[in-house]
Amino acid sequence: MATRRGSLVIVTRSPGETDRLGRALGGALPPGGFVALTGELGSGKTVLAQGIAAGSGYRGVASSPTFVIVNEYEGRLPVYHVDLYRVSDPASLEDLGYREIFYGDGVAVVEWADRVPSLLPGDRLDAALEIAATDARRVTLTATGPVHAAALADAAARFGVEGSE
Fold first, then answer.
1. Is position 164 within any domain?
2. C-beta separation of 45 from 111 below 8 A
3. CB neighbour list of residue 143: distance below 8 Å, 6 or more residues apart
4. Which of 10, 46, 148, 156 is deepest in the core (most CB within 10 A)?
5. What is the pLDDT of residue 60?
């Protein structure tokens, strides 16, 4: 674990710990929260997204929206879990109503967000996941604005690590 201004690097040692990190994030994200998930296949993006949904109060089982592109989960705030793996043209998201999802009052959690960089909000939380070992994941969380910097500090405290600076 390491911290630097506006970011936090955490190595999780199991899917359960990645889920717990997501729960801490989900509890800290405000209305309009946005998490841009990046990382290779199998790096834990969906597990982190599931934790965020649970931390936001969703009581069901969140599933990957790879084939439907977006799933909505109701909790303390609506959580929109978006998977852009199969999206090749950012313009195709117009029909999806991405503006309401990305810029609305819920929480947007977007897997493969690096496929649509021009559509992402300026103030967001970037979560880059890397495979560090068989079950370990290196999660680099970077706040790109003041709203998400505050959420990141809150999530770090909920997770039990020193907050970002």
1. no
2. yes
3. 6, 7, 123, 124, 125, 126, 149, 151, 152, 164
4. 148
5. 87
CATH code, 59: 3.40.50.300
Residue 148's CB is within 10 A of a number of other CB atoms, namely 27
Number of separate domains in the chain? 1
Query: Rounded CA gap, 63 and 132, in Å?
Result: 24
Give dist(CA 44, CA 50) in Å, integer.
10
8 A C-beta contact, residue 129 and residue 37: yes
In 3-state terms, what secondary structure has residue 141?
A: strand
- pTM for the full predicted model: 0.91
Q: In a 10 Å sphere around its CB, with 0-12 CB exposed, 13-18 middle and 19+ buried, how is residue 115 labelled? A: middle
Confidence bin at 92 (pLDDT 50/70/90): confident
Place of tokens 């503006």: 99
Return the number of other C-beta atoms located less than 10 Å from residue 106's C-beta: 22
